[in-house]
Design a protein that fits this description.
5-stranded parallel sheet; alpha/beta; Rossmann fold; 7 helices; homodimer
């Protein structure tokens, strides 16, 4: 268990998973530094949720870094492709953003090195996001190895970087149950890929459906506002 | 040797190394896609040089992505720390930017995946930049492994990502000689960490000194303009 003096960089998307992941970091006694990447999402609701979560968790410092991944295209989340509704697929979904977790962890690593932090928390989950290659344990392990080769702090032995993915093998229901046990207020998190102009969730995109099923399976009520 | 139909993403900083690295990619028959990261450098001369190099190499598409690493601090190149002049050191220099190559390769990987490209060229060099952990062969190899775990294209086996660092084990003189053999016009590249307002190089920072010594060792004249 970490002492109170240790810093952790926590990636915050504004969604339920990264909120819960940051909750684990807080519960472990870390001083939290929140990093949100504004990668040209189609809506601002996620960024607003990330800011609320940072405040709620009393994060020491919250940085929102602009990085326009729309310049590359290739995903329904960063381009004009339509977000799929009410579909089942075992393929990698069109909402996959190329190299997203690699990019986000790289940025977190850069900031961690400046802060003198060696712990990076990410809400990656391999159960409900089995289609995303960068949500798997072997990806997380490979990034951790890379981090210790890539940095002055890692190479000089000032510490050993750890990529902490506490939700990796949990179901959505388990994630939600653990967050509720920690007392997290999920009403401030945002999951929907396609909210309306009032920020209300659609209830039909992959992300909403996984969230709703998770709350149902956990025997809890989703406090998000739906259209 | 690659066929003419293959695409490569080439990282272009505007400096001599990435110019030469892109020259290797062109010589190998790749169709070039140039990527420049505007990470909040203290001067714009590098970005202008990158644009000139992209035009000179007849690059198919050149993207400049803004990413303000100054938000993190931690380097003389992205903060108000003074750039050292005329100093010798075996330590990692203050001009080291935390996780820079990891971040740049991650972005290149994201674009490569969208393009259907599997080759990424970076001008990393372990001889003259022995102090930078992310300029070593083991870092490059670790990133290549990561790339093939991190992406839909890598995991689904559409191809195998290769991180190509053709300059990795060359001295600066060898880099310059090979570029001159390829006919590269080095007058359009920019190396100085601390140019004056006219864009003229200082001749005294680490980067200028390594460049000047490289041209001298190669028995060639540096076409850059010095103060």
């Amino acid at each position: 268990m970490a002492s109170n003096s240790k810093k952790a960089v926590v990636l915050l998307s504004g969604g339920l998973d990264s909120f819960t992941s940051a909750g684990y970091a807080r519960a472990a006694g870390f001083e939290l530094y929140g990093l949100t990447i504004d990668y040209g999402q189609r809506h601002q609701a996620e960024l607003e949720a990330a800011a609320k979560i940072a405040q709620y968790l009393a994060i020491k410092e919250h940085k929102i870094i602009k990085l326009d991944l729309r310049a590359f295209g290739g995903s329904a989340l960063t381009s004009d492709q339509e977000v799929p509704k009410d579909t089942e697929t075992s393929d990698i979904p069109v909402t996959y953003v190329p190299a997203r977790n690699t990019i986000m962890l790289s940025l977190a690593l850069g900031w961690a090195e400046v802060l003198g932090s060696f712990d990076i928390f990410i809400g990656a989950n391999s159960v409900d996001y089995s289609g995303y290659p960068d949500c798997r344990g072997e990806f997380i392990a490979a990034f951790e190895s890379l981090a210790n080769l890539a940095t002055k702090a890692g190479v000089e032995g000032a510490g050993h970087f750890r990529i902490q993915a506490p939700l990796l093998n949990l179901t959505k229901a388990q994630i939600i149950s653990s967050g509720l046990e920690m007392g997290l207020d999920y009403s401030i998190s945002h999951s929907c890929y396609d909210p309306d102009e009032l920020g209300r969730s659609c209830g039909h995109c992959d992300s909403c459906r996984i969230r709703l099923k998770g709350f149902a399976d956990a025997g809890a009520v989703d406090p998000a506002i739906y259209q």
